[in-house]
Amino acid sequence: MDSDMEMEQTLDYLSLVRKRFRYQTGDIHNKLLTAITQYRLETLDIPHIILRVAQILDGHPDLIEEFKMLLPEGYRIQCSPDPNNKMINVIVPIHEPLPQTLYPNTPNAMAMALSQNIGVDAKLRYYEFVKTQFEEQPSVSITFFDIMKEYREERIDTPTVIQRITDLFGLYPALLTAFNIFLPPGYEIVPPKLPSYTINFFHAPDEMPSQGADDDAMMAD
After folding, report:
1. Is 134 helix (H, G, I), strand (E, B) or coil?
2. Separation between Cα atoms, residue 83 and residue 178, nearest integer Å
3. Domain of life, per the record (predicted)?
4. Nearest-CA neighbor of 107 among 201, 196, 199?
5. Which CATH superfamily is domain 107-191 in?
6. Domain segments of the chain: what residues?
7. How far apart are the C-alpha atoms of 146 and 168, rounded to whole Å?
């Protein structure tokens, strides 16, 4: 997909959201734009961008479903019309592997352990944990290292680093809590309480070869 089409689809989707919320779109618009940018830069993969959009647009299942317009062709998002139902089904094209079910955020034991330690060793362990945690999404760890380099060199101040780390690790509350070991006295990241969605992934049944078709093919052989 070329960049012009991506931009057009993003603007179309944000327009839908703006019509729904009218004069209350500021915070929602900014959060969505940040999430979509992270998705385009591949610091959020498909499962996590769907989760992030669901959290931002909690209570509006139709808008969550419409996010399919920004996903690769063949993806469909299915939500319950009941806004209290936090189960989302995602139909994945048959030629693509199924991601693992994404469960509600629970504190990662290692990240929680990091937050309970202080000193140089704990900071080094945090760096190692980020590198390991996002081994399959290297752009996330690279972005983290770049942010920390700017912070060490005093090219960004503490409020800025808090905002950028919150944007980067917004789906990982335990990592946000553990990051407080890097902050000076008087500063603290308090992770926001997020809706607990479970996201399941399926191949579309009508894309799967039927048993009868398989039998016919075997007989033809």
Report:
1. coil
2. 32
3. Eukaryota
4. 196
5. Paired amphipathic helix (1.20.1160.11)
6. 8-91, 107-191
7. 12
Residues 31-57 pLDDT 10s: 888 889 889 888 888 998 999 999 999
Distance of CA 118 to the CA centre of its chain: 28
CATH code 1.20.1160.11 for 8-91: yes
* 8-91 against 107-191: fold identical: yes
Residue 92 · residue 98 · CB < 8 Å: yes
Structural contact between residues 117 and 125, judged by C-beta atoms closer than 8 angstroms: yes
> Are 201 and 208 contacting, i.e. CB atoms less than 8 angstroms apart?
no
Summarised one tens digit per residue, pLDDT across range 64-110 is 999 999 999 999 999 998 888 999 999 999 999 998 888 766 545 55
Q: Residue 122 pLDDT more than 50?
A: yes
Q: Which residues of 72-90 are buried (b: 16+ CB within 10 A; e: fewer)?
A: eeebebebeeeeeebebeb
Q: Which of 10-14, 49-53, 202-206 is least confident?
A: 202-206
Report the alpha-carbon distance of residue 102 to residue 98 in Å, rounded. 11
Closest listed residue to residue 47, CA positions, set 83, 90, 97: 90
E strands of 40-121, at which residues? 76-79, 87-92
**Integer Cα distance of 1 and 188 in angstroms:** 40
